[in-house]
Amino acid sequence: MKRQEIDAPLKGWVNNSIKAITELINKTLIIAELEVRKLRHDPTDLVVRSIQPALWLLIFGQVFTRTRAIPTGNLPYLDFMAPGILAQSVLFVAIFTGGMALIWERDLGIVHKLLSSPTPRMAMVLGKSIACGVRCLSQVFIIYGLSFLLGVKLNLNPIAFLKVLAIVLLGAGCFCTFSLIIGCVVRTRERMTGIGQLITMPLFFASNAIYPISLMPQWLKWISHLNPLTYEVDALRGAMLVNSASLYSYAWDFAILLLTLISLTYICGRLYPRVAM
Amino acid sequence: MIRLTEKIEHRRAPSSTVLETEGLRRRFDKFVAVDSLDISVKQGEVFGLLGPNGAGKSTVIKMLTTLLPPSGGRAYLAGYDIARQPENVRKSIGYVPQALSADGSLTGYENLLIFAKLYNIASKRRQRCIQDVLAFMNLQDVQHRLVRTYSGGMIRKLEIAQSILHQPQVLFLDEPTVGLDPIARATVWQLVQQLREEFGTTIFLTTHFLEEADNLCDQVVIMNRGQVVVTGAPSDLKASLEKDNATLDDVFIHYTGDQLASGVSYRETARNRRTAERLG
Hints:
The complex is a heterodimer of chains A (277) and B (280). Helices cover 79% and strands 0% of the residues of chain A. Chain A is mainly alpha-helical and 277 residues long. Chain A has one domain (28-276). Chain B has a single domain, classed as 3-Layer(aba) Sandwich (Rossmann fold), CATH 3.40.50.300. Chain B has 280 residues and is an alpha/beta fold. In chain B, a hairpin with a 2-residue loop joins strand 1 and strand 2. At the A-B interface, helix 1 and helix 5 of A face helix 3, strand 7, helix 4, helix 6 and helix 11 of B.
């Protein structure tokens, strides 16, 4: 009798949790579908977004390869830099599409309508992250293509490629969610543009994207270790190149990015209703 | 448990109360946007919330659609407490915000498809539901065109279509005809009437067009500076004025007075005008 009394609430709790998780996954996929459908109707953004990484690789990369100013061990500078530029490109796309799009949708009224539907707030955040990841996959193909043409020794093993895709999805998710959090807090287009520009460069320079951490002064080394972009670049450098040159294991980088994404999604899910207030 | 029983009663009895607020209040810092709102809306009614700009109408709608938590008081919608059971409230309502809410970068069909999925309409019924509302709104021929190519009236119809896919008990329309030309406006009001007649949907709306509110609404509430100043059937309100052939405009002016000095913020005005421009 006593056991039954204990079992009943436990069963109810388990059932409710399963229901909530299924609902979260279903709705996340619907929101992602919504965003990907939009992208399919207007893919011009993908082409525009490919110009910046192309310039970094073709101009900055070429020049610094010749000057040999940055010590990268046995790795040619362009090989060292290519994963960093992929991460940078993902960072830029994520920061500028996440929060900016949210504020645009808020000004229109789309967010209000979505928030009044039975959709978990976290599904809205996660769905946008996934869609941002899909958007960033185009950058992978562009940077692989350019790197190949420039003679970067790419690891074309399918498993290594899948590892790269997974990291790109995670990195895009982290920075898209970060951008959504800023959007939820600032709520105006002008402030979002300003803050977006203000944070992307420090995030980029306080990482190992275009120079090794060993070159940094001590204070910057500390900051770079707190920067998720560092782990994204590190994992990409390990999986993308034939002469992989990562500091940490792939699993470690993956776990840090995943934990960052989960924490940011939770925070953003709590802040999301503020957008419509 | 008690609420659940009440909910069943709501569905059974056509004249039962579907929406009720008790002392509903919302403050923004020291500013009281809505003060002690007591309203009661019966099933199948068209209920009009009127008032000058900045009276608190949109704040009321935001609270009732669970977008904004109340600072005090209670509200029950379809038997559910809006503060404690927001998920159940969301399943029972449809909402058309004042600003544009259909996604211009998707087709009309895709806008409906996504909302059909979000409202958990089973995949077997989904296509039929979508085609039914498209037929009801007379949008079948343009369903595969991007919404950004639609006219203002077509967009509003699509937005209402999105909100009635799941046959909500209460449909909230926040200034549904703002920025529309007279023909589109007449079409929207005709749809509202049809929705009530064919599906018995309760409609909660705000509007600036008092003549239309007069024709459509069974009950109106006039708000001013966050408070209800008068409530009743339009005919009763008109009769209460000591004036021959009084209109709802007269009632409105009588109870709200000269409002030029009050009103909404710069930002709100900019948004309203943008919406009008886009729809126009």
